[in-house]
């Protein structure tokens, strides 16, 4: 019967439904595939119902399985809500703080700031996840996300940290002085970068027919510009003494955006999160001035 199920049982059902395969579900829950297989059989035994059908090598929930998945999602939501509330109730800057940001922001802006904050609050365990993919703040994959966004998701709150402008750059050793020169070799975004505004800019300026190297990483673009004779659109915060790049275009207004520090609404009273956001904002303001 369902009343005999524990939260761990619901997590197994939810993982299989989301991943549609035992191997991926096992990896998500950090157990072996054999363990997942036994757990499914045990849960189905408790319920007295078949919860999954195997079709084309995918595990798909039955009607009974779907009901259990819905219940699992509701339970997960309540568990995560309780975790966030407990986290925000902390009064001292201790415990754990998980930050996520992009590789370029980490390199160009946040690395030194995080280091200084870490030195100042030695009882705080800071973990940084550098990823260009969005992490789930609702599921507590991270406590704070620093992202260049136009407007945040409605379930998140945060602070505008810094305006981000962009322009065309080449190596400081390059012969090129104007982005309109016809013999420039460009680095453009590939489909994995998922940057439609930059793609539109390349298309509008008829640059997609030029000699192109494509990438999914602004930090890689910066590396290639510094070390080889390429041009790329880069954020202006990378332009600093010793950066090895020079600007050959005006600021591109349609690519300007803002770096936000984002958190889930349930963490708005967390002293640790608020203190860190204010610290980053102050450091970036000093840099801008």
Q: Keywords for this structure?
A:
D-Maltodextrin-Binding Protein, domain 2; Arc Repressor Mutant, subunit A; 3 domains; 3-stranded antiparallel beta sheet; single chain; 289 residues; alpha/beta
Helix content: 40-55%
Structural class, from secondary structure content?
A: alpha/beta
Return residue spans where pLDDT drops below 50 for at least 5 consecutive residues: none
> Main β-sheet: number of strands, strand sense, barrel status?
5 strands, mixed
List the helices and strands and how they pair.
Elements: H1 7-19, H2 22-29, H3 33-47, E1 52-55, E2 58-61, H4 63-88, E3 95-101, H5 103-120, E4 124-130, E5 144-149, E6 156-164, E7 166-171, E8 186-189, H6 196-204, E9 212-215, H7 218-227, E10 232-235, E11 245-247, E12 257-264, H8 271-288
Parallel strand pairs: 3-4, 3-5, 8-9
Antiparallel strand pairs: 1-2, 5-12, 6-12, 7-10, 7-11
Helix pairs in contact: 1-2, 1-4, 2-3, 5-8
Question: How would you concisely characterize the structure shown here?
Answer:
The protein has 289 residues and is an alpha/beta fold. The protein has helices at residues 7-19, 22-29, 33-47, 63-88, 103-120, 196-204, 218-227, 271-288, and strands spanning 52-55, 58-61, 95-101, 124-130, 144-149, 156-164, 166-171, 186-189, 212-215, 232-235, 245-247, 257-264. It folds into three domains: 2-86, Arc Repressor Mutant, subunit A (Orthogonal Bundle), CATH 1.10.10; 95-155 and 262-288, D-Maltodextrin-Binding Protein, domain 2 (3-Layer(aba) Sandwich), CATH 3.40.190; 166-255, D-Maltodextrin-Binding Protein, domain 2 (3-Layer(aba) Sandwich), CATH 3.40.190.
